[in-house]
Amino acid sequence: MIIQAELVVDAQALLGEGAHWDPEAGRLYWVNIEGKQLRIFDPGTRSEKIYAFEQMISAAVPAAGGGWVVALQDGIYIFQEDRPLKLLALVETDISGNRLNDAKCDSRGRLWFGSMSMEDKRGAGSLYVMESQGEVRKVLSGISISNGLAWDDSRGLMYYIDTLTRGVDAMDYDLDSGTVSGRRTVVQFPEGAGGPDGMTIDGEGMIWVAHWNGSCVSRWNPHTGEQTGKIEVPAPLVTSCAFGGGQLDELFITTARVGMSSEELQRWPLAGGLFKAKTGVTGLPGNAAGQIRG
After folding, report:
1. Whether the predicted model's global pTM rises above the 0.90 cut
2. Exposed (0-12), middle (13-18) or buried (19+): which is 73, by Cβ within 10 Å?
3. In whole angstroms, what is the distance from residue 242 CA to residue 82 CA?
4. What count of Cα atoms within 13 Å lies in the side-chain half-sphere of residue 19?
5. Would the CA dihedral through 3, 234, 209, 288 be positive or negative?
6. pLDDT in tens, 188-231
7. Contact (CB, 8 A) for 182 and 172
């Protein structure tokens, strides 16, 4: 199965990331990390609302009390329109050159998020989870670029990507306690495929992985390690994906243009855009953040 993605917004985002579909609002939330923007796309009007921040923003998920829980460069905050940012937790402020990266919630509303070095230091990042009381717990350390997150509650599994491993890991997940165990690699990217970045999961338990420097999103069976599909994207730096639309059968895809040369931008003029593709399968809805008391 090979599908062609179509352009939705020619955003020219430096580092588009963090796609999250809100089924209640019928809108897609995504971020431009280096542009310090939260972008909200309305498919009905094909328009966007953009919020600007003073720090890099790497993820935004709807919050139970309204607004969004956002991962900024130095920590986790609540953002509500026309209100001051509310700090929930500062993270890694003692580690120079680190910032937060991809973040998602499990079905209990816990926020999982990771960190990475902006100075290309390997193993300088970690994976964390924020509980409902606002407590932040470190789950994994020695992470290079913390990225994709997905859960298969029916099988008690959590999937996770540290990009520089060039693979997707699975962990046994206890939903009641929010703990993981038995980390193992279930998908390994072949040479020349780029690096695994953001990720989502469909209703059949198959995972969809964005290829940084690979111009595509690939579909994998994580139980066999077999690639079963591909969405070609007219941009080399593909960063994240999320199922959306009224039937959850459209895959929204974010891309970047950071670091590309003028020649590369001539070849890939739509780099940094927001794309979508009809997949023929139904995804799982993204989870909102629970009531977090910071």
Report:
1. yes
2. buried
3. 27
4. 31
5. negative
6. 999 999 999 999 999 999 999 999 999 999 999 999 999 999 99
7. yes
Question: Are 110 and 290 a contacting pair, CB within 8 Å?
Answer: yes
Q: 45 exposed, middle or buried (CB, 10 Å; 0-12, 13-18, 19+)?
A: exposed
Those residues with Cβ within 8 angstroms of residue 104's Cβ, 6 or more apart along the chain or in another chain: 20, 59, 61, 111, 112, 113, 149, 150, 286, 287
CB atoms < 10 A from the CB of 135, how many?
12
Contacts of 241 (CB under 8 A, 6+ apart): 19, 198, 199, 200, 208, 209, 210, 217, 251, 252, 253, 254
Structure tokens that stand for 262 in this block: 């003028």
Lookup: tokens for 216: 């595509």
Condensed to tens digits (0 to 9), the pLDDT of residues 239-263 reads: 999 999 999 999 999 999 999 999 9
